[in-house]
Amino acid sequence: MKLNLKLALWGITSFLGLILFNFLFISFLSKSTNFALEQLLNLKLYIIPLALGFSFQVLLFLNIREKVKGSSGLVFGSGTMSTGSMIACCAHHITEILPFLDQFQKKPEL
């Protein structure tokens, strides 16, 4: 039961930490806590699922780390899984640079 309470605390802390980081970052850039709070409330439908997903990833990481602790053979597998998860998570951002690559292509002369 001790492990489950520890995981729950890490999940809640990571959820609130990401929301706090978002608030502080927007406050710092805009130099206005009112604007940051307004943005947080306006974008809550995006920020809350994002923070939930982040806390779920933290919980998965901690759970896998606890299970792997005693067995050295699984370290390679968990590292590979972590790398694969990161690549899968970030791969969709490749499409964001495609419009910029167009300017470097040679255009056919008409």
Query: What is the strand tally?
Result: 0
How far apart are the first and last residues' alpha carbons, in Å?
Answer: 73 Å
Share of helix, binned: over 70%
What is the rounded Rg? 20 Å
In percent, how much strand structure appears in the residues? under 5%
Give me the strand/helix succession. HHHHH
Transmembrane segments: 7-26, 46-64
Keywords: Membrane, Transmembrane, Transmembrane helix
Tell me the layout of helices and strands.
Elements: H1 2-30, H2 33-42, H3 44-68, H4 73-90, H5 98-101
Description:
- The protein has helices at 2-30, 33-42, 44-68, 73-90, 98-101.
- By secondary structure, it is an all-alpha fold.
- It has a domain at 2-69.
- Helix 1 (2-30) packs across helix 2 (33-42) and helix 3 (44-68) packs antiparallel against helix 4.
- The N and C termini lie far apart (73 Å).
- The mean pLDDT is 77.
- Keywords: Membrane, Transmembrane, Transmembrane helix.
- The chain crosses the membrane at residues 7-26, 46-64.
What is this structure, in a nutshell?
Keywords: Membrane, Transmembrane, Transmembrane helix. This protein has a domain of 68 residues.
